[in-house]
Amino acid sequence: MQPFRLDPTTPAHGPAPHGARQIAGGTNLVDLMRLGVERPTALVDLDRVSAPALRGITRLPDGTFRIGALTRMAEAAADTELRRDLPMVVQSLELAASPQIRNMASLGGNLLQRTRCPYFRDVSWPCNKRERGSGCGAMEGITRHHAILGTSDSCIAAYPGDFAQAALALDAQIEITGQGGVRRMKLARLHRLPGATPDVETALDADETITAIHLPAPGWARRSLFLKRRERTSYSFALVSAACALDLDGDRVREVRLALGGVATIPWRAFPAEQLLAGERLTEECAHAAGVAAFADAVVRPDNAFKRDLGAALIARALLAARALPAARDLPVTETRR
């Protein structure tokens, strides 16, 4: 494999050799290359691209946060305005991976990270995500960490990320740049359900790159949080995670956003739970009913059936914890952005 490095003045959507893969932090791609899962003919080093729009956090006039796709996870987690206005975003970043990885991993790359399914990562097993039509080793295997929502007869691999859930709950959008120019897309449309083609994971064209993430920041999103249940207290992927943002009128739900991780093949918005809660008094009973509703369509296997109850309980806990938060946080902001 020959390295392919862009000149620092080359646009991020410049031409690349056939079979090339983009690399930024490398925390996912390099790992998969070592395992033999990824075999690019060349690497396009995005870190050498000097375009300022690819880095940093900007507050737009409408209050939206625009975050360059090469911004590191640690940089976003340390941002004082994000911490004040979108706490669930910061929490999703702080609970991910390790400090060393957060210092290297880019937010754009984090959105595109590939599954941690052991049958995908071990090339001795058949995997429809690696090679369409080859079969799925997980179907008759150990499925403790696999998905129970959004699955198909071809794939039950769970999406591993955390940040995507928090962004999805906010109806985030992404900027995408390719040889045809720049376009915007809702984050909810980026990841594709496996269906019969689990090898096609996103809606990006081959020449396209995520260049920025746009996070809306309504005032009520200060009442938000991110909860994660895992087997270890650090450097472990979620068995179940929940991003929750809540707007209350007294004790009644005016607006609620819920997104789930660890349980689905893509970042998963819990629309049935949101619909059940709309206009209702947020009691313990209502919160638990919402959790159950979120998993009504779950397809479980003996090893991962526990995720249905764990996920329902985590949603209830997130809702009740969000209810206990103040409607607005008044953390001081000492940073001035240029």
Descriptive tags:
disordered N terminus, alpha+beta, 5-stranded antiparallel sheet, 11 helices, 12 strands, disordered C terminus, FAD-bd_PCMH_sub2, Molybdopterin dehydrogenase FAD-binding protein, 4-stranded antiparallel sheet, 338 residues, single chain, Enolase-like, domain 1
Structure description:
The chain is of the alpha+beta class and 338 residues long. The protein has a domain at 223-323: Enolase-like, domain 1 (2-Layer Sandwich), CATH 3.30.390.50. The chain has helices at 29-35, 73-77, 80-85, 87-94, 99-104, 107-111, 118-121, 163-169, 271-277, 284-294, 306-323; strands at 2-4, 20-23, 42-45, 57-59, 65-68, 173-178, 181-186, 209-215, 224-229, 240-249, 252-261, 268-269. The strands form 3 sheets. A 5-stranded antiparallel sheet has the order 4-5-8-6-7. The chain has a 4-stranded antiparallel sheet with strand order 9-10-11-12, with helices on both faces. Strands 1-3-2 form a 3-stranded parallel sheet, with no helix packed on it. A hairpin with a 5-residue loop joins strand 4 (57-59) and strand 5. Helix 4 (87-94) runs antiparallel to helix 8. The protein starts with a strand and ends in a 15-residue tail after the last helix.
Distance between the termini: 40 Å
Helix vs. strand class:
alpha+beta
The CATH level-2 architecture of one domain is identified as 2-Layer Sandwich
Tally the helices: what do you get?
Answer: 11
Give the DSSP E fraction (strand runs of 2 or more residues): 15-25%
Low-pLDDT parts are: 1-16, 329-338
Concise summary:
25% of the residues lie in helices and 19% in strands. The chain is an alpha+beta fold. The chain has a domain of 101 residues: CO dehydrogenase flavoprotein, C-terminal domain (Enolase-like, domain 1, 2-Layer Sandwich), CATH 3.30.390.
